[in-house]
Design a protein that fits this description.
three-stranded antiparallel sheet, elongated, mainly beta, 2 helices, eight-stranded antiparallel β-barrel
Length: about 190
């Protein structure tokens, strides 16, 4: 009975917090030859799970709801006098390395590809050769986006604080040089 209790106490003392609820705020824009935009206040919220592969290496799958967008100057044939919002459901399988500082404190360096699906977007004025009309931003661009996502964070027991950057690698549509870009601060609570 004593051995069982001591084993349970030791196991709970070594328990790592694997799930992390995250919220973040930052700036987003559209970059590329066909985009002339200003930054937009962006936000995210999501959940991740730390899966130790070996030693200090981790696989950290994350699912998040990301609000991206831009303040337009000019983006090819899309025009609008106020910010364009694009909301994505985004998944990222991060590969991470945790530099252990001491008990419960880590510096985390992570990177991986992201895959995103556009859920909802602002309405924009679309102007083509013959007409001009209002449409959802995703009626004129691809809903599916993919790119790279990287981050640097400091973990202390239940809490994490860090910086993340993402850059789209898939243009909004064929022959159109414009890509999502976002960066910001992210707070997390590990449980």
């Amino acid at each position: 009975m004593t051995i069982l209790v001591l084993t349970a106490l030791q196991t709970s003392a070594q328990k790592e917090y694997n799930f992390t609820a995250k919220v973040g705020v930052g700036l987003a824009s559209v970059v590329g030859g066909d985009a002339d935009t200003k930054v937009f206040i962006a936000a995210k919220g999501g959940l991740s799970y730390d899966l130790r592969l070996f030693e200090n290496f981790y696989l950290i799958p994350e699912i998040a709801f990301d609000l991206k967008g831009f303040n337009p100057k000019y983006v090819n044939n899309f025009t609008r006098d106020k910010a364009v919002l694009m909301a994505y459901l985004q998944g990222t399988p991060f590969l991470a390395y945790k530099f252990r500082l001491n008990e419960g404190k880590n510096i985390v360096l992570k990177a991986g590809p992201y895959f995103a699906y556009g859920v909802v977007g602002s309405s924009v004025n679309v102007t083509d050769f013959w007409s001009s009309y209002e449409a959802d931003i995703f009626d004129g661009i691809r809903r599916f986006d993919m790119g790279i996502h990287a981050g640097l964070a400091y973990e202390r027991n239940h809490f994490s604080f860090g910086f993340e950057y993402s850059r789209g690698l898939r243009p909004f549509r064929e022959g159109f040089s414009a890509y999502n870009q976002a960066f910001g601060l992210v707070l997390g609570y590990k449980f």
